[in-house]
Design goal:
This protein has six helices and no strands. It is mainly alpha-helical. It has one domain: Serine Threonine Protein Phosphatase 5, Tetratricopeptide repeat, CATH 1.25.40. The mean pLDDT is 96.
């Protein structure tokens, strides 16, 4: 696992603003149980690129897992708005399902 993280960090040094690499690195941190690093990366992605829709779901799930339910709901709502704006119905439905699981 550490090899993948090292490789992703190398890619990130070459392309610091690459959302795909940041997202992949965040997912690796989740696998390692390092939610703080993962959260930081997801938040960095979404602040710089609110249209990077895939990160909303994973950030929301991370926040659910760490007991920050209201914050998870807030990110799901932002993600649904971004997905709707982008016309990404699949992502919208996935986010809406996660949102409804918390709010219904």
């Amino acid at each position: 696992m550490s090899e993948r993280i090292d490789k992703l960090k190398e890619f990130l040094k070459a392309s610091p603003g690459d959302n795909f690499v940041q997202h992949a690195l965040a997912l690796e941190y989740i696998k390692l149980g390092d939610d703080a690093q993962a959260r930081s990366l997801f938040e960095t992605i979404l602040k710089a690129s609110p249209d990077y829709i895939g990160s909303y779901y994973h950030l929301g799930k991370l926040l659910e897992r760490t007991g920050e339910t209201q914050l998870a709901i807030d990110w799901y709502e932002k993600g649904m708005a971004a997905a709707k704006k982008a016309g990404d119905n699949h992502a919208y439905n996935e986010l809406q399902g996660a949102y409804e699981d918390l709010t219904m």
